[in-house]
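TASK: fixed-backbone design
INPUT:
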C-alpha cells in the first residue's frame, strides 16, 4: 500500500517537472533571495499561466511552495493551473508594477497540482488551436474587423480566453454569443497589441536568437525613435522594425549608456573657430571620445578629428575671443594618424603563397645558375682564342666518336713514354 502511494507521489512530481520544461517562457530573477530578511515567510505568490499571463494569489493554507511548482489556483468559475514563478518579499514589489489597481482582494492557492489536474488541463490545451481556427472563421462571417491571435483554455476547461488584435473599437457581443453556443464554455475577450502577440507566438529575431519578448522580457516598454538618434543609428524603418512591425525593444537596452556618455561631450550645435576656418560638427565616437569636424555644414570637407578634451579647450578659448591656429594640439598631426595593424598570423594576404615562390626563383637558385653560365662562358673564351663559337653538334661528335677516343689515348701514351734523342 505504501509503495503505491509513493509511486503516485513520484508520478505527480515527474509530471510537474515535464510540464514545467514545456511552459517556461518568461523568467523572473529574484534578486532578493540572498538577503536574510527575504527568508521570512510571505503568503503572496506570483503564478504564471500560458505565455505572458500572470496573476498574484494568497497562500492562505500555508502550503510549502517553491519556484517552479505547479499549483491549482482559484478562478471564476472553477480553478486554473499555473506555475509558481516568484515567492517572498519581491512579490509585493512586482504587484505594484503589474497588478491591476482595482483588484483589492486576491484569490487563493488551492493546492499543488495533481496528475489528474495536469491531465485535464492538457486535454483542454489540445483544443486551443482548432478553437482559434474556428473562431477566426466565425469572426470573418460576422464581418468584424479583428484578428484572433490566440486562445487559452482555463485549467479545468470551463472557460476560454480569446486574445484579439483590432485597430478600432469592435462590438463583439454577437460574437460572444456565437462562440458560447459553438464551444459550450464561458467566453472572455482580451485585446492585446502586436508586441504581446509576438511574445505569445515567439520566433527568431534578425540577430539569430529567440525573440526577447518571448524569451525573458517580463514587461513591454515603449520604444521611440529618439533611442535610435542617441545611438547614431540610421533611421531605416526596415532595419529598426522587429517581427511585430514596431520598433525593436533592443533599442532601449543601451540607450542609457549613450545618454550618459553624451553628457561628457560638447554639443553638436557649437562651432569651433580658428584663424583660418570655422569648423562644424560632423560625427562623433562617443565611447572613444573622438569628434570629427568639417569646414562645411552640408558635406564632409577638410575633416579633422580631435578628442573631447581639446574641443572643450577650443570652446573656452573662443568664448574669450581667442582663435587658435588650428584644431589639433601642437604635438598632433594635421591629419588623423591611421592605426597600423601587424599581421601576426600571416594569413591576411591572398598572394602569400605566390610570394614564397617568387623568392625561391629569384633567390639562391637564380644566383647559382648565373654563376654557372658565367663560368661556361669563360671556359669557351679560353678554348677559342678567336672567339668563334663552336657548333654543338661538332662538340658532341668529337666527344663520343671512337676515333677521337683512340687519338686521345695515343696522346696520353706518348706523354707517358720517356723522351729519347736519336
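OUTPUT:
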Amino acid at each position: 500500500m505504501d509503495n503505491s502511494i509513493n509511486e503516485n507521489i513520484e508520478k505527480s512530481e515527474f509530471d510537474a517537472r515535464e510540464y514545467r520544461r514545456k511552459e517556461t517562457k518568461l523568467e523572473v530573477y529574484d534578486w532578493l533571495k540572498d538577503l536574510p530578511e527575504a527568508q521570512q515567510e510571505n503568503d503572496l505568490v506570483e503564478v504564471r499561466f500560458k505565455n505572458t499571463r500572470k496573476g498574484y494569489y494568497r497562500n492562505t493554507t500555508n502550503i510549502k511552495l517553491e519556484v517552479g511548482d505547479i499549483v491549482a489556483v482559484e478562478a471564476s468559475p472553477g480553478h486554473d493551473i499555473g506555475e509558481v514563478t516568484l515567492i517572498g518579499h519581491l512579490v509585493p514589489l512586482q504587484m505594484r508594477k503589474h497588478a491591476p489597481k482595482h483588484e483589492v482582494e486576491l484569490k487563493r492557492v488551492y493546492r499543488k497540482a495533481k496528475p489528474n489536474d495536469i491531465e485535464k488541463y492538457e486535454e483542454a490545451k489540445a483544443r486551443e488551436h482548432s478553437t482559434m481556427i474556428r473562431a477566426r472563421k466565425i469572426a470573418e462571417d460576422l464581418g468584424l474587423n479583428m484578428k484572433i491571435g490566440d486562445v487559452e483554455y482555463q485549467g479545468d476547461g470551463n472557460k476560454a480566453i480569446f486574445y484579439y488584435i483590432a485597430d478600432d473599437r469592435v462590438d463583439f457581443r454577437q460574437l460572444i454569443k456565437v462562440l458560447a453556443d459553438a464551444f459550450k464554455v464561458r467566453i472572455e475577450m482580451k485585446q492585446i497589441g502586436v508586441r504581446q502577440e509576438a511574445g505569445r507566438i515567439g520566433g527568431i529575431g534578425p540577430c539569430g536568437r529567440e525573440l526577447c519578448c518571448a524569451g525573458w522580457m517580463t514587461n513591454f516598454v515603449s520604444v521611440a525613435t529618439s533611442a535610435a538618434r542617441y545611438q547614431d543609428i540610421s533611421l531605416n524603418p526596415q532595419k529598426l522594425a522587429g517581427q511585430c512591425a514596431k520598433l525593436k525593444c533592443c533599442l532601449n537596452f543601451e540607450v542609457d549608456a549613450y545618454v550618459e556618455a553624451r553628457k561628457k561631450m560638447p554639443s553638436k550645435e557649437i562651432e569651433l573657430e580658428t584663424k583660418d576656418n570655422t569648423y562644424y560638427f560632423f560625427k562623433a565616437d562617443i565611447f572613444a571620445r573622438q569628434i570629427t569636424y568639417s569646414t562645411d555644414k552640408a558635406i564632409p570637407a577638410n575633416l579633422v578629428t580631435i578628442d573631447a578634451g581639446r574641443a572643450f579647450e577650443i570652446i573656452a578659448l573662443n568664448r574669450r575671443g581667442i582663435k587658435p591656429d588650428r584644431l589639433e594640439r601642437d604635438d598632433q598631426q594635421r591629419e588623423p594618424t591611421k592605426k597600423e595593424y601587424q599581421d601576426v598570423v600571416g594569413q591576411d594576404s591572398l598572394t602569400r603563397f605566390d610570394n614564397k615562390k617568387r623568392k625561391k626563383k629569384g633567390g639562391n637558385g637564380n644566383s647559382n645558375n648565373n654563376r654557372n653560365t658565367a663560368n661556361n662562358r669563360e671556359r669557351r673564351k679560353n678554348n677559342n682564342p678567336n672567339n668563334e663559337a663552336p657548333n654543338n653538334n661538332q662538340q658532341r661528335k668529337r666527344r663520343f666518336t671512337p676515333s677521337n677516343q683512340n687519338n686521345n689515348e695515343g696522346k696520353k701514351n706518348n706523354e707517358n713514354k720517356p723522351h729519347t734523342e736519336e
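COMMENT: Residues 264-336 form one domain.
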